[in-house]
Amino acid sequence: MAQAIQLTAPNGLSYSQPTGLFINNTFVPSTSGKTLKSINPYDESPITEVASATADDVDLAVTAAREAFTSVEWRGLTPSERGLLLLRLADLCEKHEEILATIDAWDNGKPYEQALGEDISEVISVFRYYGGWADKIHGSTIDTGEAKLAYTRREPVGVCGQMIPWNYPVMMAAWKLGPALACGNTVVLKAAEQTPLGVLYLANLIKEAGFPKGVVNIVNGLGSEAGAAIAGHPGIDKIAFTGSTNTGREVMRAAAANLKAITLETGGKSPLLVFEDANLDQAVKWSHVGIMSNMGQICTATSRIYVQDTIYDTFIKQFKQYTIDNSKVGNPFDSSTNHGPQVSKAQRDRILSYIQTTKDEGAELVLGGGGEDTAAEKKGYFVKPTIFSNISQTLTAVREEVFGPFVVIQSFSTEKDAIAKANDTQYGLGAAVFTENITRGHRVAAAIQAGMVWINSSQDSHFAIPFGGVKQSGIGRELGEYALSAYTQVKAVHVNLGTWL
Ligand code: NAD
């Protein structure tokens, strides 16, 4: 199998798509000859095949990363030089932004304009942001008296195994690579099997930016094979995983074998509360953004909406109309489209089965509720924006993450009732509160069990602000300065200044 293939995307853009595993700055075939097929979710046509890693390939990648970790070429760099490599990578991503966005739209199904303006734009910002951090990571001195000089060093953790999901293929890679590299670690990264192409193109840019060989290794492959091999590998010091809560549990179990450091970004069932004193137009607009963006495939999607009973009917009427007026379902490469297909047949079918269960459990369908039969396209993994109302806390779709353009709406009576309903979940990732009462806004934000709370917005995260969850939504934080703690370990140095034995 060739290690690159010339492809022409549906928007006419031609480029060279790497198809191998990226180990030691070289694209290589998998030792087993296994491949993964990448499918265009818009029309179900095959795009290309790429190498699929087995445990043996992961072993090779870990060896490369281990050697690079102690190499002069990498560890001999000054922090400023490391930062410069990230800044160069950001510039290269900017130069190649149209190709990266095209690949993401093609492989994942997300609208091209969003891939370009949101995903890849954030990729560039994240690499710049962490490029800036690289020479600002330092320890401290601790005064324990004249007889001792004590100081701390913040050192890289070592070889990091990173597993990412398919919903933001290149952006999730940037969230993980940025802080890991700024801190001086080396990486073995595995993209999701549904979207392997973007990170392979990124690999080209990593090499071109000047990262020494072995610093970043990319091994696409099945979660059960390559992912499991990374999670359990004794040569890996830290795992950073983004994906479902169940897989996160498995990864944690495997990582326990050699007590790897671990950060998990897992599932969510984030609540959005609308109080009667809210600016209703704003609440409607952000509620739509909160669940329909990226076709609902966002871990922080505000998928449970709770509206105060005094404005419940009005909210539902307005929300339904806004969703009808603002959902342009169609071809990801049409500039008018803001809602493409779901990433895969399996995800589409999963969402449709939740829709059926929700109907069977007696909720009221307000809008949508279908896939193929009602979709604007004859082919492709489409699900129409779907809204259910009159639900109860016991409904399956209130308890479980659907990960689609699917929202359930319920009323609440008092602030206490709203908080109790919001917190009645195993998850704790995001939450949103709509109120014009500043005191209430902060009070509710404090009472909600979540890693992130938006007051009067939803989903407008930022790379400088920590991102992560509580309860079964994860462990640790990504982004911002906080991510640097996840990729460094503290060494204390004691210098004896006078107590000779
Ligand atoms: P997933 O858990 O199936 O897969 C995530 C990644 O883990 C993929 O790369 C997959 O190949 C790999 N994997 C699967 N099984 C594995 C195993 N046994 N060992 C090691 N790795 C394994 O999730 P998904 O379907 O790709 O993504 C959807 C889920 O991700 C949703 O539940 C969503 O909430 C979650 N998600 C969370 C965040 C967050 O930041 N909290 C962000 C995006 C997605």
TrEMBL record:
<protein>
    <submittedName>
        <fullName>Aldehyde dehydrogenase domain-containing protein</fullName>
    </submittedName>
</protein>
<dbReference type="InterPro" id="IPR029510">
    <property type="entry name" value="Ald_DH_CS_GLU"/>
</dbReference>
<dbReference type="InterPro" id="IPR016163">
    <property type="entry name" value="Ald_DH_C"/>
</dbReference>
<dbReference type="InterPro" id="IPR016162">
    <property type="entry name" value="Ald_DH_N"/>
</dbReference>
<comment type="similarity">
    <text>Belongs to the aldehyde dehydrogenase family.</text>
</comment>
<dbReference type="InterPro" id="IPR015590">
    <property type="entry name" value="Aldehyde_DH_dom"/>
</dbReference>
<keyword id="KW-0560">Oxidoreductase</keyword>
<dbReference type="Pfam" id="PF00171">
    <property type="entry name" value="Aldedh"/>
</dbReference>
<dbReference type="InterPro" id="IPR016161">
    <property type="entry name" value="Ald_DH/histidinol_DH"/>
</dbReference>
<feature type="domain" description="Aldehyde dehydrogenase">
    <location>
        <begin position="27"/>
        <end position="493"/>
    </location>
</feature>
<feature type="active site">
    <location>
        <position position="265"/>
    </location>
</feature>
